[in-house]
Amino acid sequence: MKLAYWMYAGPAHIGTLRVASSFKNVHAIMHAPLGDDYFNVMRSMLSRERDFTPVTASVVDRHVLARGSQEKVVDNITRKDAEEHPDLIVLTPTCTSSILQEDLQNFVERAQLEAKGDVMLADVNHYRVNELQAGDRTLQQIVQFYIEKARKKGELPTSKTEKPSVNIIGISTLGFHNNHDCTELKRLMADLGIEVNAVIPEGASVHELKNLPRAWFNLVPYRELGLMAANYLEAEFGTPCINITPMGVVETARCIRKIQEVINAQGANVDYEEYINEQTLYISQAAWFSRSIDCQNLTGKKAVVFGDNTHAAALTKILSREMGIHVVWAGTYCKYDADWFREEVKDYCDEVLITDDHGAIGDAIARVEPSAIFGTQMERHVGKRLDIPCGVIAAPIHVQNFPIGYKPFLGYEGTNQITDLIYNSFTLGMEDHLLEIFGGHDTKEVITKGISAESDLNWTKDGLAELNKIPGFVRGKVKRNTEKFARDRGFKDISAEVLYAAKEAVGA
Amino acid sequence: MTIAQEPAALNFECETGNYHTFCPISCVAWLYQKIEDSFFLVIGTKTCGYFLQNAMGVMIFAEPRYAMAELEEGDISAQLNDYEELKRLCEQIKRDRNPSVIVWIGTCTTEIIKMDLEGLAPKLEGEIGIPIVVARANGLDYAFTQGEDTVLAAMANRCPDKAPVAEAEKNERNAIQKLLNFGKKKEDVAQEESEYVDHPPLVLFGSLPDPVVTQLTLELKKQGIKVSGWLPAKRFTELPVLEEGYYVAGVNPFLSRTATTLMRRRKCKLIGAPFPIGPDGTRAWIEKICSVFGITPKGLEEREAQIWAGVEDYVKLIRGKSVFFMGDNLLEVSLARFLVRCGMTVQEVGIPYMDKRYQAAELAMLEQACHEMGVPLPTIVEKPDNYNQLQRIYELQPDLVITGMAHANPLEARGINTKWSVEFTFAQIHGFSNARDILELVTRPLRRNNNLKDLGWDKLVREEAKI
């Protein structure tokens, strides 16, 4: 057993559901107790979906516990098949059902006899993989299922597309800025004269999957989702896989050069150097930004980075390589893929942190007192508590991280967005310090005076000495809290004792 | 499901139970805040943790007094010893937080692997010296608010069964009493004692925010009724005394197990009343308690009329409109009854679980309200099927659907007004003065849409409504 109240990656079935519900006309049926369909709430709230989330539960209740699911799962599958005619129904085990050890595969086979659509069982072990790994596996499973089906029917296209083309693999629902990233990648491909053969899973129909082999190469923008499917396609059809995340100026260029190499090897004759040069120097503002005096002011500032592999690695490189910021430590919660992360960031930060314990992260932030944090929503809250600004760069995320406006993290527009995010985080922090140094906002003064005149409080020598030991960026806050505490209790003098009593009173 | 002719009595149906609701472990979200010296340990898996983390939103960042005991593969296959594992975690909790009680929330997983929490708790309690209360609030058996019911039923067994020593001291033990007497001299307190009618002790059950506790307590005080205690109190150490023959009354419709426990195990007498939701419900609740104690209520009619007059601006907006409850939190019957009184037609009352005995007075009042307001009686659908309900919603086109978040946005996109049902469990809705808050919630989508109605943006999905 493990004592925990926060987790960075969700349980396995969430990954499966994210992939299944990203496809068009695919329905997932969870073998789960009442209340486990919380995924629907998240999808409906966070990504503000207009359509009903195609996920239902075959409810595991007391009766199921006593007698087994018997016909229930099969009935639920065939019922959903008749109601909505999905192309595919994915039976999704949950942690509960995996302990019941019912033969779900058998249910699937029986339901398949009656159902018009396809039925499959998501092959994920709840106690061994998390949301991200499960999503990756489910996507591969679905791709393989339809490739094999097409092969059996002799419907598998054998030739590549006439012009260079790409499958973009790994865009999914509830993914961090995924829809914006997808638009940006399509634009980038259009600029490069590359046709988009397919985007999976988001918005794709399973019928398109048989066409995947037609692409010249596969682009997997995120480390966490799509690699298994791309590796499968590479093994089956020799389709090369490019898994360089085009996030940040340097990495975007590296990704484009790799694309050039891969398609030229297949007979295209393209030279993207001019395009990269033009975009880097004049179109994207990120390169110019790193040269400007704004960015100069950030030189050597301390930052910490935490998130999933893709975003934490990319941000670390951007901060360090493209902006001259001192990344004290960079970390990931993708423990299962830690070696990759270490390798990616080892030259760009002092220390690498691999953990999914938010307490350890909080302590590590407090220890180094960075000027800015780049992390998940959890780190944003740590930042709030410590008065350090935070830019959110990775899931877990809240509804405000599903912006309506166009905010990709990938490609050249992505570099602009990231620049804003980084710069705004730091200047806000700077502004705060200046305000503290020069005595705070006007409003704060007014509030203090409103409660009582300043003169009735006297900081004793030892009180003042203790106050001065408190780090600059929280000193103002401590001073205000202590004075309020003293006023509330009618103390005239503020000694070190009063200061600590006040500190205890606010539970700091 | 079409209403052919007006039925004379409430019609009860039961569907497949394929509906969306919160897992009952969500009760820790409000109970840890209510019981200030408690610590809730949810013994479950990542799925439970993920649900809590997302459902509780920003509360999670405030160092809550709850945690997951996350079961790992070794726990499931019994390679690890449950007792030793729980002991290790509870010792850590004791060290870090030093609570007065640790509440173990059993989940689906502990049920399936048959972890004997009730058996382990007394043993561990003896060893670490902190009371351990076990509540099996799992999704196999219960829905959403029923989680609180299982916790309170377990707590009911922990209430002291004898008033300790002198009467004066007993008053001191009581949080509400202390609050009301705060700053008063002893003789004033004695003076106040005489304001109460002499009646057998009354203990109320149901977790409510402290301001609402105070409001309802004062409301009864006006009738000369003294609330001897409240289950739960602000602290575990302040749980009320429950002696045989005490009277108890519930404040929420989902507390049937707690009521049963109080009656059977603690030999208390249950006052079966409608629940104090809406001015009509509040009045009926007080009247019923008064009648049990042989008190003639004073000034309630005027009070109710005054509240209705005060909310007329809101009632105007919903009068004559229709409402459909999809059902997920067991407050549905009480809210339906109140909305009928407001002049609405209730088309369907979905409800996870219907205890006809515990809710008898409430059901009778709903029926009466429908007759008096001249509106058809709704069908009460226990364990509803959301898919079927959506078909009925498309057919009936209600003016308002009260539903969970999973369906709210998709329905809005199809031009159907919705109100998110979970808000009713977190808002203050009890007593006379909170009637406005209920209407504030109910009318919000209608007021919002009044503002937008001329824009022609009702339906925002391309194809015709399809699930």
From TrEMBL, chain A:
Q: Which positions fall inside the Nitrogenase/oxidoreductase component domain?
A: 12-426
Q: Where is the active site?
A: D294 (proton donor)
Q: In which pathway does it act?
A: Porphyrin-containing compound metabolism; bacteriochlorophyll biosynthesis; Porphyrin-containing compound metabolism; chlorophyll biosynthesis (light-independent)
Binding residues for substrate: G429, M430
Enzyme Commission designation? 1.3.7.7
Q: Which cofactor does it need?
A: [4Fe-4S] cluster
What is the UniProt remark on how the cofactor binds and its stoichiometry? Binds 1 [4Fe-4S] cluster per heterodimer. The cluster is bound at the heterodimer interface by residues from both subunits.
Protein family (similarity comment): Belongs to the ChlB/BchB/BchZ family.
Function statement: Component of the dark-operative protochlorophyllide reductase (DPOR) that uses Mg-ATP and reduced ferredoxin to reduce ring D of protochlorophyllide (Pchlide) to form chlorophyllide a (Chlide). This reaction is light-independent. The NB-protein (ChlN-ChlB) is the catalytic component of the complex.
Protein's name according to its UniProt entry = Light-independent protochlorophyllide reductase subunit B
Q: Which gene encodes it?
A: chlB
TrEMBL record, chain B:
Pathway where this protein functions:
Porphyrin-containing compound metabolism; chlorophyll biosynthesis (light-independent)
Q: Spell out the reaction equation it catalyses.
A: chlorophyllide a + oxidized 2[4Fe-4S]-[ferredoxin] + 2 ADP + 2 phosphate = protochlorophyllide a + reduced 2[4Fe-4S]-[ferredoxin] + 2 ATP + 2 H2O
Per the UniProt record, which EC number(s) apply here?
A: 1.3.7.7
Q: Which domain of life is it from?
A: Bacteria
Which CDD domains has this protein been placed in?
Pchlide_reductase_N
| Keyword Chaperone (UniProt) | no
Residue span(s) of domain Nitrogenase/oxidoreductase component: 23-444
Q: How is the cofactor bound?
A: Binds 1 [4Fe-4S] cluster per heterodimer. The cluster is bound at the heterodimer interface by residues from both subunits.
Q: What class of enzyme is it?
A: oxidoreductase
Keyword annotations: 4Fe-4S, ATP-binding, Chlorophyll biosynthesis, Iron, Iron-sulfur, Metal-binding, Nucleotide-binding, Oxidoreductase, Photosynthesis
Q: What cofactors does the UniProt entry give for this protein?
A: [4Fe-4S] cluster
Binding positions for [4Fe-4S] cluster? C23, C48, C108
- Pfam families the UniProt entry points to: Oxidored_nitro
Subunit and partners: Protochlorophyllide reductase is composed of three subunits; ChlL, ChlN and ChlB. Forms a heterotetramer of two ChlB and two ChlN subunits.
Q: What this chain does, per the record?
A: Component of the dark-operative protochlorophyllide reductase (DPOR) that uses Mg-ATP and reduced ferredoxin to reduce ring D of protochlorophyllide (Pchlide) to form chlorophyllide a (Chlide). This reaction is light-independent. The NB-protein (ChlN-ChlB) is the catalytic component of the complex.
| UniProt family annotation | Belongs to the BchN/ChlN family.
Record-given protein name: Light-independent protochlorophyllide reductase subunit N
Organism of provenance = Anabaena azotica FACHB-119
Q: What is the lineage of its organism?
A: Bacteria, Bacillati, Cyanobacteriota, Cyanophyceae, Nostocales
